[in-house]
Each structure stands twice: as C-alpha cells, then as structure tokens.
Amino acid sequence: MRVSRWLQITTFTLATTMASLSMAKSVVVGGKNFTEQFILSEITSEILENKGFDVDTRTGMGSVVVRQAQENGQVDLYWEYTGTSLITYNKIDESMSPDETYDTVKELDAEKGIVWLEPSQANNTYAVAMRRADAEEKGIHSISDLADYINAGNTLSFATDAEFAGRPDGLRPMQELYGFEFGRPNLKRMGTGLTYQALNEEQVDVAMVFSTDGRVPAFDFYVLEDDKQFFPSYALAPVIHQDTLAQYPELEEILNNVSALLDDQTMAQLNAEVDVDKKNAREVAKEFVQKHNLN
Asked: Is the pLDDT of residue 142 over 80?
C-alpha cells in the first residue's frame, strides 16, 4: 500500500511539473550586432524575465538574418528601424515622411506575420561624420560640401562597415545622389563600431556613424548635414511575430512602455555608457529597468 501510495504521489508530482512546464511563458528575443541593439535586447530580456517569462536572448545577428529568423518564427521579438524595413526588406526607395514610413512598413509587414508596435522618438539614422576641427578647417558642413571638396581634386579616406557599404540606402547610392566618389583605395572597411575609433584616432578622415551613438558627442564629431535628405527615417520600434502576440497579448503594453521612454538623447546616453564608459550592456540594461521601475 505504501509503495502504491508513493507511486500515486510521484505520478501526480510529475504530471503537475509537466503541466507547469507546458504552461511556462517562453519567448526568443533577438538583436543585431551593434551596441544599441545589445542594450535594447538586454533591457527587453530583463523586463520579461522579471515578469515571469523564460527568455532566450539571441543577439549579434545581421539585419537580414534577424528579420528572416522572425519571419520563420525562430525569433519572437526584437527592435527594428522603420527605414531598414522600408528599404532593405520591402525594397521601397520612395522618399517618405517618418509617419508615412511607419504606416507603410506596418501595413506591409503585417502581411508577413510581423506586428509593429508603437514607435519611439529615437531615430537612429545613418550619418556621415568628421572630426570637428577638421571639418571646420576644410569648410565642410554638409555632404554636399564634402562632395564639392572631393570633386575639387582632394582626397579623403572613409571608414564604413560592410553592411553600410552594401545597403540600398548606403554608400554607393549616397555617392550617386551627391555626385562624388571617395574612390576604392580610400574606402576602409571594418567591423561595426570600429569606424568611430578609426575616426577618433585619425586613421581616416570621414566615417559612417549612427545618429544616436554615444561616441558622436563623446568624441566631439561633427555630423555633416544631409542636405539632400538621402537618409530615410529610422524610427526605433519593437516588432513582434503575430503568433507570439496572440499567445501573449500582454507583451504589447510591456514593449510600448519601453518605447515611450526612448529618444535620441536617451539612446545616445545608454550607448555611451557601453562604448565610452565601458560598462557591460547587461549592467546598463538593469540600471535602466530599475531607474524607470519597469520590473
């Protein structure tokens, strides 16, 4: 009788455990391979873990890779940029306002099972920067000025990462619109994030940067005016697979609450804590979550 009773208890315990496991809330949080994305992924994971989710965080992916992973259901949610979806994923090069860009990608991506939640005020667009003293000395304040300087027979070296060099809203189309070329020998391709170091250490004259990167103000870079408005809006927003949202509808409010806290200045500060102050992205994320009572 004791053995039978023990078996009943053991069976009940196992059944209860299995049921609990099957009911566990589980999500995969994706992220790209640069500082801002590492921070956002960690912020998202920290909040969701605090709210009882079992989180698998997968960062360090390229734009196309993380997008395909989400379309295939391998990534549940991550933070994306409206301009990237418009141009890279949906192949639209038409000039649009920020609101038009968001509305367009929201509609087009819905057809692919991807839901755009509320956009933040952070617009992490690509930009072209120089050392401030160098830009002032050469009289270069806009990309048109840069084009005129090079077309006058001057040579400047340019630091770019591989993605910007090959994007449809990247280096080649930018040069075509502004009517100049750095010239192949003057292009210095390097890993994402190293363009800032190369410019700061005077290894190059001009560099590709992101507008919300904390190293831009920290290193006193001068961001050239995009006077022909080549770069589209890159508003930052959480994107989630529609099946995941249907399963966990509470994620919409959770992620929108984070989005409402983000703007250019906030993102630049967070990025600087990692890239300039050398803090760990997870540490920065935890401090952000605690500061804003997002537990």
From this structure: yes
Q: Please tell me the CATH superfamily of domain 2-123+234-291, with its number.
A: Periplasmic binding protein-like II (3.40.190.10)
* HSE (side-chain half, CA atoms, 13 Å) at 16: 6
Residue 105 has pLDDT above 50, yes or no: yes
Write down the pTM of the prediction: 0.78
Task: Specify the CATH number for 126-223; select among 1.20.1090.10, 3.40.50.12280, 3.40.190.120, 3.40.50.1010.
Answer: 3.40.190.120
Q: Are 74 and 113 in contact (CB under 8 A)?
A: no
| Alpha-carbon separation of residue 7 from 4, 10, 251 (angstroms) | 5, 5, 40
Q: How far is CA 274 from CA 37, 128, 213, 225, 282, in A?
A: 12, 22, 10, 26, 10
* CA angle at 44 for the pair 250 and 239, rounded to the nearest 5°: 65
Cβ of 51: how many Cβ atoms within 10 Å? 15
Fold matches, 2-123+234-291 and 126-223: yes
